[in-house]
Design a protein that fits this description.
Elements (H helix, E strand, L loop, with lengths): L1 H19 L9 E2 L16 H8 L11 E8 L6 H11 L3 E5 L1 H6 L1 H9 L3 E4 L12 H18 L7 E2 L5 E2 L1 H9 L3 E2 L17 H11 L4 E6 L3 H16 L3 E2 L2 H7 L4 H4 L2
Parallel strand pairs: 2-3, 2-8, 2-9, 3-4, 5-7
Antiparallel strand pairs: 1-6
Length: 265
């Protein structure tokens, strides 16, 4: 009898835990991730590839070309973005900065500088929510509000690319983004760089980037990292010496919509 009561208690406890901690399913959403490798190959993303193909989303350039796409997520400022922009300008390298509403309104001069110097502003949503748990209208408001505030402070009137907050996505958010004219852009190279209280020095950022590097990499960096700011120039220069070219996400989009011969003209 006691065993039956104990079993029933465990079943009830498991049920309550499931209610409080729902498992991420296809309906609720997926967290972006993949198995890293140091073989200089594009990471395999398994079942995610079919979803990305279906909705025209990207995590890497799969052509095999030795090109790199630099992207930064900017939710708040730690004083390193000017330094990063200086390096990009010096090395003539384009980047995409995925920004939040807070970043735009608190750092309008930096956002304007990004656009003025030829970089792309991407949509990281206005308030940085998990888009897989909001309804379509709320997601639309989050993304359109960000686009509006960017247009208010810069000359970029349209946003083409979306990096979902926290890397969370689902089939319906991929579809809704397409309906709003946005393309999801994930990443194929990243490392733990966002913890401002645990920076490890420029060599750490350099080593983490170089050992994971592969043709077609979309690199995710956070501009709050002092390590990244200090390592960026070395990373760019050494990758150029290895034969890599830095391109913008506009190039990737065109590359997948126009004939190859046209791009070579």
């Amino acid at each position: 009898m006691q065993k039956c009561i104990y079993t029933a208690f465990l079943i009830t406890l498991t049920f309550l835990f499931a209610l409080m901690n729902p498992v991420h399913t296809a309906a609720n959403g997926y967290g972006w991730g993949f198995k890293k490798n140091d073989e200089h190959k594009v990471p395999d993303i398994g079942e995610y590839q079919g979803m990305l193909d279906k909705y025209g989303a990207y995590y890497a350039d799969l052509s095999g070309d030795k090109v790199i796409y630099l992207t930064f997520d900017n939710g708040y400022e730690e004083g390193y973005t000017d330094e990063i922009l200086d390096v990009l300008k010096k090395e003539n390298v384009p980047a995409t900065f995925f920004v939040t509403g807070h970043y735009v309104t608190s750092q309008p001069d930096l956002v304007k500088r990004m656009v003025d110097e030829g970089h792309i502003i991407g949509n990281h949503s206005y308030h940085h929510p998990d888009l897989t748990v909001v309804n379509k209208e709320s997601m639309k408001k989050e993304l359109e509000s960000l686009e509006e505030v960017v247009a208010e402070y810069t000359d970029q009137e349209e946003i083409k690319f979306l990096r979902p907050p926290r890397g969370m996505f689902s089939e319906r958010t991929l579809q809704w983004a397409n309906e709003l004219g946005l393309t999801h852009v994930f990443w194929s190279l990243t490392f733990k760089d966002w913890n401002t209280g645990d920076q490890k020095g420029w060599r750490y950022a350099y080593d983490q980037t170089m050992k994971q590097m592969h043709p077609g990499a979309i690199i995710l960096l956070h501009a709050v990292s002092s390590d990244n700011a200090q390592a960026l120039e070395r990373i760019i220069q050494d990758l150029k010496r290895k034969g890599y070219e830095f391109k913008s996400l506009d190039h990737l989009l065109l590359k997948n919509t126009l004939p190859k011969d046209f791009l070579e003209l």
